Hints:
- The strands form 4 sheets. A 6-stranded parallel beta sheet has the order 7-8-6-9-10-11. Strands 15-16-20-17-18-19 form a 6-stranded mixed beta sheet, with helices on both faces. It has a 5-stranded parallel beta sheet with strand order 3-2-1-4-5.
- It is about 30% helix and about 20% strand.
- The protein has helices at about 15-25, 45-50, 80-90, 95-100, 115-130, 145-150, 170, 200-205, 220-225, 275-290, 295-300, 330-335, 375-385, 395-405, 430-444, and strands at about 5-10, 30-35, 55, 70, 95, 105-110, 135-140, 160-165, 180-185, 210-220, 235-240, 245-250, 255, 260-265, 310-315, 320-325, 345-350, 365-375, 390, 410-415.
- The protein is α/β, with parallel strands linked by helices.
- The protein folds into 3 domains: about 5-90, Rossmann fold, CATH 3.40.50; about 100-300, 3-Layer(aba) Sandwich (UDP-N-acetylmuramoyl-L-alanine:D-glutamate ligase); about 310-444, Mur ligase, C-terminal domain (Protein-Tyrosine Phosphatase, Chain A, Alpha-Beta Complex).
- α5 packs across α11.
Amino acid sequence: MNFKDKYIGIIGLGKSGYWSAKLAKSLDCNVFISDKNIEPNHPYVQDLEQLNVEVEVGKHSDKILDCDVIIKSPGISNKINLFKKISNHNIPVISEIEFASLLSNVDNICVTGTNGKTTTVSLIFDIISSELNILKSGNIGIPFSRVVLENKLYKKNKYDYCVLELSSFQLEHSYYLKKEISAILNISVDHMDRYDSFKQYLDTKMKIFENSNFCIYNFDDKQIKERFLSHNQNCFAFSLNKSHGNFYLDNNKIRSKNSNYSLDIHRCKLKGVHNISNFLAAATIAKKVNISEKNIFKAIKNFEGLTHRFEHFLTKDGIDFINDSKSTNIDSAIMALKSIDSNVILIMGGIPKEEDFSSILQFKNNIETIIAYGKAAKSIYDSLSKEINVIVIEGFKEAVNMSLKCANTGSTVLLSPACSSFDQFKNFEERGISFKNIVERFYA
Length: 444
């Protein structure tokens, strides 16, 4: 798609919309951006207006229908009425990721999955950067448009790869995004407010493999494996089992079929058995771009992980505190619980993505008490209270304080909410920071 002299419309003025507008303007395009929620005095609005970008706030008018192509920010649902009008006018709609990729001259390594994407992308970046010039972008929090613009990826450049974390939202309107390597880590129920069915969500995730030279998939995930039974060309599995993939887990060691290198998982800085599968995915991808196994194992060993993702931030009076605020669905909470043997004080709650939490019962012997807060509290209580002690408390601060009262020497207080944060917080980061602050003030 040639964007020169095109009239480009952008829906949504978050980070993605802002940077795609700046990138489009650098091409001397006429740019119109619309956001019905943002305030007129927002810094993004003021900055773009100085660049002669027309900004519409407080509504979505029909002016967007005059555009030649529309860039949709990932947070905007396809179900809003505006998209019916756009469809009727046959105006092409692409994602911000798609727009930036059509201008970039760098090969992409693309990663998706329900859980663990950001951690895995960060690890891939650490491994590959030991030998090559690499960038990271996408759902990790850095818009691809910004990376393309600031690093002049539309020209000849020094970079070998850009590793992109892609959400299902970003894949919805990405038709021509070229991938040297694409990978899916796992799949579980999520974003059912956005999709009509789990199948639609999975189908959207599977778009990661379109236009891909090498496809990497999780053989241990039943639903993903079944989708690959009809594939064979350029498809490569990763698995905990030695029978599938180049790297595997054996007696608490990550091993390679190709060398004598191995790594005891207890020597890794990033804890949690649920991370091992993602270690294997990252190693498989790094191997495809010819990174030495010495550097692969070294990077995995030294990788410290990210905040709010099974973050063991404090041990006090024999009590461990783990901040897993990024756990926004039940499957991610299950992954966290698999890494703790016993005596768990579990804080759950927020806005539920499912009403049935009964799958948590498989850990009933490991859980001392569940503190359920927020809008999900009733569903959590109804699902679990017959077999696990569940205390219902509305406010998050009060829930954390209750967990401190319940904990004793040998306990692990785990914030792994299994729900989104938006009933009481702006995002999961704010929730995690609040948890850590409450705990640290208690011991101050």
